[in-house]
Amino acid sequence: MTVLAVGLAALLAVACVIAVALPFLREPEALDDRLGAPDALERRRLELAEERDRVLADLKELEFDHRTGKVSDDDYRALVGPLRSRAASALRALEPRAEAGNVPRSNAMSEPFPAPAPTPEPSPSPDMPQPPTLPDPEPPPEPFPAPDEGEPGVSRTIR
Amino acid sequence: MARQSPVRLVFAVSIAAVLAIFLLYVSVAGGTPSLQPSQLKNRTGKVALVGKVVTPYQRTEGKQEHRFRLRDVKGSATVPVVYRDSVPDQFKPGREVRLEGRLQNGVFVGKPGTLVTKCPSKYQAEKRA
Amino acid sequence: MPELGRAALAVCLGLALYALFAGGFAAFTRRRRLAVSAQNALIAAFGAAAVASGVLLSALLRNDFSFQYVADHTSIELPTAYTISAFWGGQEGSLLLWLLVLTGFSAAAVAFNRRSGRDLLAWAVPVLGLVAVFFSFMLVAVSSPFATQAAPPDGAGLNPSLQNPYMMVHPPLLYLGFVGLTVPFAFAIGALLARRSDEAWIVSTRRWTLAAWTFLGIGQLLGAHWAYVEVGWGGYYAWDPVENAALMPWLAATAFLHSVMIQEKRGMLKVWNVVLVVGAFVLALFGTFLTRSGIVSSIHSFTESSIGAWFLGFIVLVLAGSVYLVLSRLPLLRAKTRLESLVSREATFLYNNLLLVALCLTILWGVVFPILSEAVRGEQITVGAPYYNFFLVVFGLPLLLLMGIGPLIAWRRASLRSLGKSFIWPAAAALVAGVILVALGAGSSPAGLIAYTFAAFVLGSIVYEFVRGTRARRALGGGSWLTAFSSLVARNRRRYGGYVVHASIVLLAIGVAGSSAYDTVRQQKLSPGQTMAVGDYRLTYRDLEVRQGTNAEELRAHLDVERDGKSLGSIQAGKNDYRAEDQVSNEVGIRSDKLTLEDLFVIAEQVEGEGNAIHFRVLVKPLVNLIWIAGFVFLVGALVAMWPSLAEQRRLAERYRELRAPARA
Predict the structure, then answer these.
(1) What is each CA distance from C462 to C129, C467, C500, C542, in whole angstroms?
(2) pTM for the whole thing?
(3) What is the tally of structural domains in chain A?
(4) How many beta-carbon pairs under 8 angstroms link A with C?
(5) Domain range spanning residue B21?
(6) B5 located within any domain
(7) Shared-domain flag, residues B76 and B103
(8) Long-range pairs, C432-438, Cβ under 8 A, ≥24
């Protein structure tokens, strides 16, 4: 019994040593052994990406809350303008040059929404006048999906 | 909103409120000292007594009255106890118990409903009367 | 085979040490292969722990009494199911279970996070390794399950009060919860070590936290049910230190689950979130320290062993290290935004956090008070149920109300006018409920009445949210109410799953309020043929039956139950006398009313020898079954909230995808 136990223990130990040594066995001489850690640029990009997602999610939630009646018309009017401009600047910060097909630029102050949306959303409450500060040639489609709400089929790539 | 974040203000006020409620309660209700028989001495206030049940153990038939002695868990001092309620099924000489009550004329009179037994082994859940 | 078990534990310790030191070194010097090697070490540690567990399990099943642990906790005639549960029935085995779950979760965390956030994982690995080092060291050097002896003919057996199905599930579920909190802790500390101020660690551990919290909640509920049905004193929670040991980390984790939402939405409370997750983890460690060290007197008594000192040392180490780390990274965690209004959803989340933490701290204070008072005044002063119940009401009722207010308020800032509009229906529901309740006599307990009214408000607001949301979703996308509803929930699982969980807490609150504020208790001695009245019930003691069970002599009093003149059948209550173990267990009789959800609870306290007279204690507990029903609702809500969404996963993976991928995947 003891011999068996010792044998199995030895087997276990060897297996574990192999598991631990595996990366070194696979790449005896690695070209790049650097652990990918975000440098300053990458951190900035992450910050901006999080800010973008946050603002777009806020926008989407605001729209929905307004629709459900949680946010009054006055509040909506007051909040949506600044939020939209924040969204625009967040997106612009991530895309210094407008990529073809990604961002529909209808005017200087672009609406940061992807052109194709599977179900184009109707405009928000009809009695809400368009805020004068944002020239809005057409009612905005459903904003970009928030991190925890999925719009199947819509994917967005940032380069 | 003001420059100074209201978060800190809310925090501070909340903590203060909690402390106030807490102090109010503790000063009014207080806790119960948990004593062993050797610490009982001549204390007359309401205390909790912890100890091991030792013989003689008498149970009066027809009534829910139990008379026994409690001994220090690790010691020899004992005190006579009378308890007028039903005891948990685990109760018997040799078990560790805890009950509340007060010392009257040298006998510890237990408050009904407060006797609980402890079991010496691990992960044992015990019952109360 | 014990040698294999000991060897496996030693291997596990070695691997954990490697993960700690090599992993830390790799993260510090940015060496990729070494970091992967340390990750592999954690995975291999799970393998080693599994081998050790297998050895113990096989010894249990073989009734190998040469293992001291097997002899101490099982016997030949013990049913197989309970033999398995004896694995965690004692100190050493339960530590091994902890290690197994810990290494298993660590391995899974490594596997799921290998491809993204490499530097975060690289720093989380040494933290996981540190925890694994502690537990494997305990098992190797302090409290080994593989101690051997000359095999006695039979073992000591398992305490009869542990021989029930609850023993199979309650401890493992709690452990899954406690240990599960290690992962968010490790990633939070890892993020601090990596000097990251983004939310990758929250995103990576969101479901871990939710799962651990769910396990902890269900585990506690099962424990309460066990106490209610098997221990049978008429209650389900005794504020015993061991019970509080599980409640405190759960409260901290609840606060954490809410405050991370603020960080995600507004980018604030970063320091607070780290503090909470460290707090939850430390409380979990503290909880297990309490239950093992015997330092606080509890009706769940444990042997006083040196293991408590080790745990305390580890807790101090973790706390000190975390505090130092947070303080040194403070500038990194500065919030860029401020709370805009005290009337906003962020603010209600903040109030909720404060209340939860306050409740947690008062419970902690109550638990350590005896220790502190002994150190200061020389005698242990214990606080009893009145202390805890007082604070439960003081903090719990506002929490209950907030659960209803929160969903109705918008983020950032809510105007009182829109708030008023949102409040109308739920407030009306609460008012109507309140009036009906007072008419029904609920005014006898003000706290109970307030609890019920608040509960009606919250349920009203939850229903209102679902209705408003479905209506809006239908307006947007068309379709039937059902498709709109499922689309609504599917699109925002966290929110609507969360609402379902809130509903379960409300049901819990109603059940607790009903069964504690409005219960009826009667004690009476009955001879055969006599009747006692309790509430609306009349019980007649018919006779006493003595029968032989499988391993106990069973004493059962038969009683006839009547209500409003109608017979409701009969009920049995009595005791089991386990001759071999020299123990008597309480077997209560419970009659659950399917309509009113109340329980008739009969305890045969004392049997008189002459004439078979019995001292009965009978309780009527209104609405108590809502508590157990709440457990199911809780599970459903948690599952909905946890359910992965492919679109979300893709989205987040893209966000945290590294721009500069290493040369070789």
Answers:
(1) 43, 9, 8, 48
(2) 0.88
(3) 1
(4) 207
(5) 1-30
(6) yes
(7) yes
(8) C432/C456
